[in-house]
Write a structure and sequence with these properties.
Largest sheet: 7 strands, mixed
CATH class: Alpha Beta
Number of helices: 3
Radius of gyration: 22 Å
Number of strands: 7
CATH topology: Nuclear Transport Factor 2, Chain: A
Shape: globular
CATH architecture: Roll
Oligomer: single chain
Structural class: alpha+beta
């Protein structure tokens, strides 16, 4: 009987430990998701506010934007890429200006230190005086490095 009691006590202790670990993990992932969403929104508003420093701070140095350029005439569809330094320079110089950026229906998918954010956007702005206003879907990928979430890529299909 004592053996059964001790075995039962051990099983309860193990289950309590697993429950505590799961609660801690669930709490941290919830906190990470909230932090990522706040960073996603701040990053979208930084160029609208002309805050290039905040924009750059939220991006990894190896950030890449990937935009699908649809087929026109006899040309095939292709991907156009822009690096962090190229995009930051466009905004800093004033060649690319945003009057508004709105994000909707954001979802965060956490994979340990990698997060995928999907959503809808609408923006109004200009690049070299040409209208770049648009609406659509997008996907951002964030990576946690040294305790900080940084966006590493954006895809606009």
């Amino acid at each position: 009987m004592k053996l059964v009691f001790h075995l039962f006590a051990c099983v309860l202790a193990v289950c309590a430990g697993i429950g505590a670990v799961f609660a801690e993990w669930n709490s941290s992932t919830s906190g990470d998701a909230e932090q990522i969403l706040a960073s996603e929104r701040a990053w979208a508003q930084a160029p609208v506010n002309g805050n290039v420093a905040d924009m750059a701070r939220l991006m990894s140095d190896d950030y890449v934007e990937i935009v699908m350029e649809s087929a026109q005439g006899t040309n095939n569809s292709s991907w156009v890429t822009t690096s962090k330094s190229e995009w930051v320079d466009l905004v800093r110089s004033g060649r690319e200006k945003y009057a508004s950026v709105n994000l909707r229906n954001l979802k965060v998918y956490l994979h340990r230190d990698v997060a995928t954010v999907s959503g809808e956007y609408s923006q109004t702005g200009t690049k070299d005086g040409k209208d770049i206003s648009s609406n659509g879907l997008y996907v951002d990928t964030w990576v946690k490095r040294n305790g900080n979430w940084k966006v590493v890529s954006s895809v606009f299909p």
